[in-house]
Amino acid sequence: MSEWTTALPDWERRIVAGESLIPCDPIFPDQAEEGLSIFRQLVAVDVAGKPTFGEISRKWILDLVAAIFGAYDADTGKRLIREVFLLISKKNGKSTDLAGIILTALLLNWRESGEMGILAPTIEVANNAWKPARDAIRADEELSDLLQVQDHIRTITHRGTNATLQVVAADSDTVAGKKWIVTLVDELWLFGKKPNADKMLLEATGGMASRPEGFVMYCTTQSDDPPAGVFKSKLQYARDVRDGIIRDPEFLPVLYEFPKDIVKSKGYLDESNWYITNPNLGASVDPAFIRRKIREAEHEPGTGSLQSVLAKHLDVEIGTALRSDRWKGADYWDLTTRREITLKYLLEVSEVIDVGIDGGGLDDLLALALLGRHAETKEWLAWCRAWAHPTVMELRKDIVPRLHDFEKQGDLVIVRQMGDDIDELSQIVAGVEEAGLLDRVGADPAGVGAILDSLEAKQVPAEKLVSVSQGWKMSGTIKTAERRLAEGTFWHADQSMMQWCVGNAKTIQVGNATNITKQVSGSAKIDPLMALFDAVTLMALNPPAMHKKYQLMVF
């Protein structure tokens, strides 16, 4: 048997040219044709005229079906491609195709009393896959004789093998103890917002360990927030396999997303490019509908609706620069990242460092921002860190997966013992002072008494601790930061946490002043950004270069 690859390094050229995103021919053509033969005969009841899948399916989905079923080695009983990741825009028939794929798998299954399942994050999403599967059976007399449908428990039973297919909603049913041969996960982006979703999916797919013929397929649109949790990690893995960074021939990534140059130029707003992430454009996808949705969203400033439309209908990943009420500095944030910027780097190259601190309640993040001025180029360089109390994890369950992501990246610390956060923050600031680089430490005076005490206890001079005016008085600071970013004289560390905070920041006009506050941004966290603004306030005063002590501080 020849080698095969699931990498597709020329995907950008292919997707623009409308070519297949399947990187290899079916490994076993006979098995592929058998699967296609069944899939094509299924009836799509929700389409006018009740055509078969074979009559309405475009080449992209037939190629995918062939790749899945053509990876099965009938001689050994082993499937050689065991994970599939499909990212595709809304209304391209994803859930209906899911139903067709798993029905095909059920009909081809040989294992007695085998179990298969479609796992969805909610009952509504579960029904999106359940109804097409149920209706395809009822529309075919032969299938109705072969398969028993139990609507009340969303279960289909093969009368010959006694194998079952369940459609399970994660918010109402448990997946513990499942031994599914085939698992199809619908709308993975929503699982990315669920705490412990990774454990749930591990439980749901665990049956494959003893069933080598099995496979799992993740299907999803983009998230209407920056990717997080299990969705973020699985999406990144799929991209790395596709790009050839990771070699994993058992994992098949099929990602309908825009090439980087189109994203950078916002070419996704050009209707002539919509086919790139909508292979069913003109069939199940109506361009007039997308056009109207974008027009409506553009006339609803502040709602976040435009980013949702772009994510769902064009698979545009939400970054920092899509909301109409965004901070204007967000337009340049992703372009001013430098991977080399770390705390160590900042201490090595800076001639002076200002510090910003933002300390909220127990349901906020304690945030620290260090802003250095490069000794030679005079560019501003920023590095941030934040701390979260367990209280945040309880009160803000919607952002827990995201906070765990930041913890893994080392940018956020989840505090285990009260006071550890203040102690660690003070130790970093004291290290900057000991290195001879500290100009001043700025903070909102509200709620930082314990921090100031800790700083003084670590020999940070009291005269270096200053209060920074908040609210509308920070308008000049906000504009200074965005202007510096636009000029390319303000660089920052490559930190997803900060990208998230910048994307969360919402602006309001107070007279002639531009204001960003936690109240305006709602439950979304911007504490590290506010700490950075405190540091910008001080650095904008052009402090003199310090007499640096040339010993390297280690934290």
Protein described:
This protein has 555 residues and is α/β, with parallel strands linked by helices. The chain folds into two domains: 11-261, Rossmann fold (3-Layer(aba) Sandwich), CATH 3.40.50.300; 330-539, Nucleotidyltransferase, domain 5 (2-Layer Sandwich), CATH 3.30.420.240. Helix 20 (475-487) crosses helix 23. Residues 265-539 form the Terminase large subunit-like endonuclease domain. It comes from Candidimonas humi.
Gist of the model:
The chain is of the alpha/beta class and 555 residues long.
Unreliable sequence segments: none
CATH H level, superfamily name of the largest domain: P-loop containing nucleotide triphosphate hydrolases
Briefly note the structural class of the backbone. Answer: alpha/beta
- CATH architecture identity of the largest domain: 3-Layer(aba) Sandwich
CATH topology type of the largest domain:
Rossmann fold
CATH top level assignment of the largest domain: Alpha Beta
Annotation, overall tally of beta strands: 20
Straight-line N-to-C gap: 53 Å
Overall pLDDT level: 89
Sheet with the most strands, sense and barrel status? 8 strands, mixed
Q: Strand order across the biggest sheet?
A: 5-6-7-4-8-9-3-10
Oligomer: single chain
Radius of gyration: 27 Å
| Count of DSSP-assigned helices | 23
Beta-strand proportion: 15-25%
Query: What is the number of domains?
Result: 2
Write down the overall geometry: elongated
Report helical residue fraction: 25-40%
